[in-house]
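Sequence only, no structure available. Ideas?
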Amino acid sequence: MQNKTLLEIKNLKTYFCVGKSVVKAVDDISFNLNKGETTAIVGESGSGKSITSLSIMQLLPTNVIDEDHGIINFDGKNLLSLSEKEMRKIRGNKISMIFQEPMTSLNPVFTVGNQIIEAVQLHQKLDYSNSREKAIEMLELVGIPAPNQRIDEYPHQLSGGMRQRVMIAMSLSCNPEILIADEPTTALDVTIQAQILELIQKLQDELNLAVIMITHDLGVIAEICKRVIVMYAGQVVEEGSIKGIFKLPKHPYTQGLMKSIPIIGGNKNKELYNINGLVPNATEFPEGCHFHPRCEIGVEKCTEELPIIESTPENENHLVRCWEA
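Reply:
I predicted one. Tokens follow.
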């Protein structure tokens, strides 16, 4: 593995105008992604994970507030300052994304082969014959049997797991440096989930990809990620190595997520742990620490002042946003 920084995100803010309110979907987050490494972004629905990925890809809705909103450095350029034409050269080519639901991401009226071929022709400038060969090669790479036959089939003719493999093949067809996987195992059964995660890990090792894995499930990342970023209410509340987060989580929210993981062979009669309350409305985040209304160890200061994210005394690479950590 190389330690070259491929993607550097500094003070990223993605705000939306909804009626008369401002939604702070992503609020001042920073992190780096290194070449050949897999970093996970975890958190509940509404924490800002997917908006972070869409901000990187510059695939945001029109009601985004266009003002100074940080830096996303890639290949010597700030992606936030590029035109749409310039972003098209990067999106799908240098940085690719696997979206949550393959059935809605794939166009039902075109064969899966045509959809991969289109991406290859657009970015790699190959003719149709060579693009088709590349598409067959990619379908074979992701483990789809009889790729010469499957290339001419439509999405509805494939299972959910096969469609997800097609999405991975399409994402990797232009040899990207970064792959963003947004909940890549959603709506798949447990066996297929394991196969897809194993496939992503295999391809990452073979192609030396940098991967951002977005998920709400800590169990998904245990085997394949090196670093973990925990998000809550649009902010990073903890960041560290996978070993550090699993062995000694510091933030009460991370601790709650860890305690919520079911234990195989555990007491069947014991009620599963759950974090009290809900993620707050993005237009009405509480004063102080955003997590304090749900926190079990909060003090008065937590309700008044937002904690900064800083290194723990034990490890300068383990960051936490909590007054009591």
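The chain has two domains: 5-94+176-320, 101-175.
Hope that gets you unstuck.
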